[in-house]
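Subject: Protein entry, chain in single-letter code together with its fold tokens

Area: Proteins and the way their chains fold up in space.

Attached in line: The record itself begins immediately under this heading.
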Amino acid sequence: MNIPAQKPEKQRPEKLYRRLLPFYMKPTILIAFMVISLIGQLTWTTAMAMSGAVDVRWCGVGFGLGIVLGYIQGGWIARMWARDYLRVLKREITFWGAKGATGTTVFVSLALGVPIVIGLSLDQAHGILVGIQSYIFGFIGGMNLALYLWVRRLPK
């Protein structure tokens, strides 16, 4: 009696490698996001300085605060992906089943949404809105910086 040999299942790696990450998490792409964020910030600050209608110090304050909060967000995302990304790839859990997925989503929603709502609700908020735009550029840059530093430590 001949029993056909079963094809061995492809073994998925037990360790996270850079090549397993999606396109938008590749080091080159993360660097491009940071550069675009910086160019956007410089262009925005220059435009606001040329208009002379607002105090451009709000741009610096917003950008600095955005970098700090974005870096925190990026660190949380990196920890979540380091812990659960392979399980998501293996379809053992969904992204929303990953520990911290809901918390990071709520944090980014609040970190980006609250300043915008507050800025839009204030009278004479033009100066604050200028800072909020810079904050968004900083948030994006800071988050991508934290993710880049994490991805760099992963084996190729």
Notes: The mean pLDDT is 84.
